[in-house]
Amino acid sequence: ARVTALSRTAADLESLKRECPDIEPLCLDLADWDATEAAVGAAGPFELLVNNAAVAQLQPFLEVTRQALQRSFDVNLGAVLHVSQIVARQMIAQEVPGAIVNVSSQASQRALHDHAVYCSTKSALDMLSKVMAMELGPHKIRVNTVNPTVVMTDMGRINWSDPQKSAAMINRIPLGKFAEVDDVVNSILFLLSDKSAMTTGSSLMVDGGFLVS
């Protein structure tokens, strides 16, 4: 496959390029709509899309700032909508079936302390994905979400490094652990593949059972 990786962090793209030399990197901030339109439009067309960019600015409800609110919705929701528009238009113009996977969170369906903004952006993302699935389905484009628990990425480690905080969360997960990156990647690959050809508008929980506990 021809793979394009997009990030606003040049160091991450350089590291990825060393591991996977054939990947085509794009360095830009998805909150910048004009730059995104130009870069993604020029890089396509694409048949598959994974929207994984996100920020997590955790603040108690009474201390939520306008900056945190705006930035979170710009990246966690607005960027997904915009990139998906660009790519879906390419798919439709090429008359090819496609699949889009949006990386959501268990936080879309469960209230968490200090996550007022984050939970709200992920709930909005789940509903956006359902509407996308409904409107893009006639064009043979499937749209789904994966909804992980805490994942042991760099961001996950930063926000869940406090043993007392992490223990409280892990105690609510029947499988007794946080997700690893491969747990999420494998779920995404399933939803991108023809093995999920009749699945659209769905949310795949990768939460170790958190939401049933």
From TrEMBL:
InterPro entries, A to Z: L-xylulose/Carbonyl_redctase (IPR051737), NAD(P)-bd_dom_sf (IPR036291), Sc_DH/Rdtase_CS (IPR020904), SDR_fam (IPR002347)
Q: In the UniProt record, does the keyword 4Fe-4S occur?
A: no
Which keywords does UniProt give here?
NADP, Oxidoreductase
Keyword Oxidoreductase assigned to the entry: answer is: yes
A GO MF term: L-xylulose reductase (NADPH) activity
What the entry lists under SUPFAM superfamilies is as follows: NAD(P)-binding Rossmann-fold domains
Q: Which GO terms describe its biological process?
A: glucose metabolic process; xylulose metabolic process
The cross-references to PANTHER family, in alphabetical order and at most eight, read: D-ERYTHRULOSE REDUCTASE (PTHR44252), D-ERYTHRULOSE REDUCTASE-RELATED (PTHR44252:SF3)
Q: How does it assemble?
A: Homotetramer.
- What family is reported? Belongs to the short-chain dehydrogenases/reductases (SDR) family.
Its protein name is: DER reductase
Q: Organism source for this protein?
A: Oreotrochilus melanogaster
